[in-house]
Predict the 3D structure of the following.
Amino acid sequence: MHGPVIPSISLKKPFALVLALGLAGAPASAAECMKPAEAVAEHVRILQTELMVGALKCARRPQLALRAKYNAFVQAYTPQLIGYSEVLKGYFMRQHGPAFRPHMDRHITALANAVSRQSTAMDDYCERIASVGEALLAHVDTAPAADATAQLAQTPSVTRQVIARCPAPDQASQQISQTSAQTTVTEK
């Protein structure tokens, strides 16, 4: 497969190119993207959903103990799960104001559906999720709460993030520079 075709654009001012293209790959509005803490909160929700789906999907694989891992995960990380849930709620409140709840509910449902689809598309989903559960539970009994929070943020998920993370200001300018370099601008 070839990459995206970027047409030559004839503009009088290069700045108009940036306006025409926007930030390549970024959401339509910077207000729609997630701040770093919100992206971590969504990541944690993905991990929680993956473990829940794994516990249900892989029930016929008792040697993986996914139901026990999910229950231990929820018990061990309850304070963090509540905190991250509030951060995610804050994102939807920022986006939709007082009418945020249906938007958040739809997002969480769509996320669960995406994880479920992913689980059926991967032959080794149960093993992968068992590994995620083991990684999350490895040091729970001995780690302080701050370490548990970091562990949640750093444990890779099987499913990718759904809402784009806001680029850092210097990343946004790099994206604009890269987009400009990839596009030929001829002045009339």
Residues 1-30, 171-188 have pLDDT under 50 and may be disordered. The chain has seven helices and two strands. The first strand starts at residue 9 and ends at 10.
